[in-house]
Specification:
Blueprint (H helix, E strand, L loop, with lengths): L6 E3 H4 L6 E5 L5 H8 L5 H4 L8 E8 L2 E9 L12 E3 L4 E4 L5 E3 L3 H8 L12
Length: about 130
């Protein structure tokens, strides 16, 4: 996933039909994933996120639950600053800082989504 003009648009990058995308950081447990996604998943069978520090997991969701899982390296775009957050497909475009960190763009709906996201670094706080 390569940013274009300092942005990455997950609606264009991630395949399939989905309504929102949730971001899980390295070492996410099944319990933490359930808290963020609202459904149970077995990450040991579907991803390396539970034991890898080199990827983030982008989980697309639809009305039936998990629609897809995408392991993405932390470079050139690091989604972990948005760990634990979910964004509607229509607002799944993110800015990318000079050092590669993704950030939510400042429009009203993303701001509302960001308001319900954790404000601590979840990689340190038990993720």
């Amino acid at each position: 996933m390569v940013p274009v003009d300092g942005r990455v648009n997950l609606a264009a990058e991630l395949a399939g039909q989905w309504d929102e995308v949730c971001i899980l950081p390295p070492y996410t447990t099944n319990g933490r994933a359930r808290e963020v996604l609202g459904v149970s998943v077995d990450l040991r069978d579907s991803s390396r996120i539970w034991n890898s520090d080199g990827i983030a997991l982008l989980v697309t969701m639809d009305d039936d639950g998990v629609a897809g899982m995408y392991e993405v390296p932390l470079r050139p775009v690091d989604f972990t600053p948005l760990a634990g957050c979910c964004f509607p497909r229509g607002n799944a475009a993110f800015g990318v800082s000079a050092d590669g960190d993704a950030f939510a763009v400042s429009d009203a709906e993303n701001a509302a989504s960001a308001a319900v996201c954790p404000t601590v670094d979840l990689r340190i706080e038990g993720w």
